[in-house]
Design goal:
Blueprint (H helix, E strand, L loop, with lengths): L1 E7 L8 E4 L9 H4 E3 L4 E3 L1 E6 L5 H17 L25 E9 L2 E9 L4 E9 L5 E7 L2 E4 L19 H7 L3 H11 L1 E5 L7 H9 L1 H14 L5 E8 L11 H10 L4 E12 L5 E8 H4 L2 H19 L2 E5 L7 H10 L11 E5 L5 H4 L7 E6 L5 E5 L4 E2 L2 E2 L6 H6 L12 H10 L1
Parallel strand pairs: 5-16, 5-17, 11-15, 15-16
Antiparallel strand pairs: 1-2, 1-6, 3-4, 6-7, 7-8, 8-9, 9-10, 12-13, 13-14, 17-18, 19-20
Helix pairs in contact: 3-4, 5-9, 6-9
Keywords: ATP-binding, Nucleotide-binding
Pfam families: AAA_21
Protein name: ATP-binding protein
């Protein structure tokens, strides 16, 4: 369960910026949008708005970058670069490390873990544990030094085994550290996906459809969405090199045969009813999912696997451009899964970036779940929630029309288009 995520000096985020899923004291949607732990009430997610190039995707990328660095750190060599880009529009930050920090709950214990890294090495790293209210350090890393406290015995004698470009937490995990393993598992359930390039996620969907325990949930979800088909058929067969094009270069064929040895080709078909002239169903017709169904149907299918996987495990799902290619009602249906006690019994959380302003009205989001991102005159992104936004010194009331106010620019974080008629006139005069 995620409480906070922070990033600083990374891509367009110059200053440390935080998204919090700790519920504030406001009273709207208490029964659906929050859940209680022994520590405090938490939000089931957040929605991020902003103009194009404002930094929404960069914030999602910060989350995916932290996850990647944590899970892949130990597998890298000492010469590998970390692929981290700081805020480059300031002389004060362009050569400084980037900061990533997450605060989360595991077994009702609060952990705060973070690090500062550049493309070459880890400059700082820290882990704090709070079984009750007060934090206690587990380990602190600064430059070349790593201080392991008595609260983290699994990290002892591993200091010298840690490369400059490796995270100490990942090293402790490799040596079977109890706490490190729990934290690594938490990051493994901290999933980030793209709503634009979603082809790579359909393997997760296939796997869930092959499992009897999870396939019924997905099929029922598809039927609720009224996507136009009645059922799905999956055809899975071993890779056969004979099916490759005849004009493919021989060297490429040999490489594919080697790379795809033991792999399977999976075809997905949607089942549609066929009717006679009297409107009576007379049989079924199979459509190829990829070529004969809409891009929106393909997207729903591809991302439904990760969505329900997170719902089952009670993890965190972060999606960039969730609404791309989707009808607003389909986007709404996905978001409502996380506010449903039926579909979300394990309190999974959904964070997503979108341009779909309909959700500001129909989505039933609390003010502390709505975030806006915008850039200042120096190209630096800032992020703030609607509950933090002040108008004439007062917070925005819950009965305001959030969608209308946002479109009118009342909360910022929208593009400044200017007078388009002037643009057309100038173009015609050339």
């Amino acid at each position: 369960m995620l409480l906070e995520f922070s990033v600083g000096n990374f891509l367009s985020f110059k200053a440390k910026t935080t998204l919090s899923l700790a519920a504030t004291s406001i009273k709207e949607h208490i029964d659906t949008n929050i859940f209680s732990t022994e520590r405090r009430d938490l939000l089931k997610g957040a929605v991020i708005y902003g103009a194009n190039a404002s930094g929404k995707s960069n914030f999602v990328r910060a989350m995916s970058t932290m996850r990647r660095l944590v899970l892949q750190s130990f597998d890298q060599s000492s010469t590998d670069e970390l692929d981290v880009t700081p805020f480059l529009l300031s002389t004060g930050t362009e050569k400084s490390p980037s900061l990533f920090e997450a605060i989360f709950l595991i077994d009702n214990i609060r952990y705060r873990y973070g690090f500062e890294v550049d493309d070459k090495q880890v400059h700082a790293e820290w882990l704090f544990e709070a079984p009750k209210n007060a934090e206690k350090p587990m380990f602190l890393r600064e430059g070349d030094g790593i201080e392991v406290t008595r609260n983290f015995p699994e990290g002892r004698d591993l200091e010298e085994r840690t490369r400059d470009n490796a995270l100490f937490l990942a090293v402790a995990d490799q040596f079977n550290g109890r706490i490190a393993k729990k934290i690594m598992k938490w990051f493994d359930n901290f999933i980030t996906i793209s709503g634009l390039t979603h082809e790579g996620y359909k393997g997760v969907t296939f796997g869930m459809l092959e499992d009897k325990q999870t396939s019924s949930k997905l099929l029922n979800f598809y039927k609720r969405l009224d996507l136009g088909f009645d059922d799905i058929a999956i055809n899975k067969k071993p890779f056969d090199a004979k099916e490759l094009p005849n004009d493919m270069p021989e060297s490429l064929v040999r490489q594919l045969v080697t790379d795809l040895e033991g792999a399977y080709k999976i075809d997905i078909k949607t089942i549609h009813k066929k009717y006679n002239d009297q409107g009576k169903a007379v049989g079924d017709v199979e459509f190829d999912m990829r070529s004969q169904e809409s891009s929106g149907t393909n997207k729903i299918f591809n991302i439904s696997g990760p969505v329900f996987d997170v719902l089952n495990d009670g993890g965190v799902l972060v999606v960039d451009e969730l609404d791309a290619s989707l009808h607003p009602l389909l986007t709404l249906a996905v978001t409502r899964l996380f506010n449903s006690k039926q579909f979300n019994p394990n309190n999974a959380q959904l964070i997503f970036a979108t341009h779909d302003t309909n959700l500001l009205y129909y989505g039933n989001y609390r003010r502390d779940q709505i975030y806006f991102v915008e850039k200042d005159q120096y190209g630096a992104s800032d992020m703030y929630s609607l509950v933090e936004y002040k108008e004439e010194g007062k917070t925005i009331r819950k009965d305001r029309s959030f969608e209308k106010d946002y479109i009118e620019g009342r909360y910022g974080a929208i593009p400044f288009i200017g007078n388009l008629s002037n643009v057309v006139t100038e173009w015609q005069e050339k």
